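Entry 14. Ran structure prediction on the chain below.
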Amino acid sequence: MGDYREVQAGSKPFKRAYIAVMLWFVGRAIQAAARVDKAVREEFEKLPEGFTFSLGVQPHGPYMIVGKNQKGRVKYLGWKPESKVVDLRMAIKNIEAALLLFTFQESTAISICRDRIDFDGDLPPALTVIRAIGIVEVYLLPKLISKLAIKRYPVWSFGRKYLGRIRIYFHSILGY
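Output, structure tokens:
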């Protein structure tokens, strides 16, 4: 009765690589947006000094870790959560749920409602991080796609939207 063949799920390397690139770029964009945009900076000012959060895919990653250092600057800390002390862990339950989220077929709010993201940490910092990620998505994505990724599309001035987008892309690519 106990003799059966164990079937392992496929590793899905292309999906995993796409999610890894997206998390890498979003992590760097969060760091850049905290320098460029006042609203993102204010969101991170609400968090305590030394606060660190991770966003990743269960069970084996990929991950992004972003933290606020003692000087209050937001930094992308890489993709290995094992060596870091993380205050807030946000874990997307599987690669398929992450693909829905990062191909913008489903907004962050809908993913949370459908229980596709687990949170391990306090709720107020989690909501602060989600708001900051929403602002970053508005900068990174065209309006047509961004409207799918967030709850409400903001009304911003031309300068804030396009000049901020250019600056965030520039800082994200160069890494500062």
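The domain at 13-169 is CATH 3.30.1050.10 (Nonspecific Lipid-transfer Protein; Chain A). Will compare against last week's run tomorrow.
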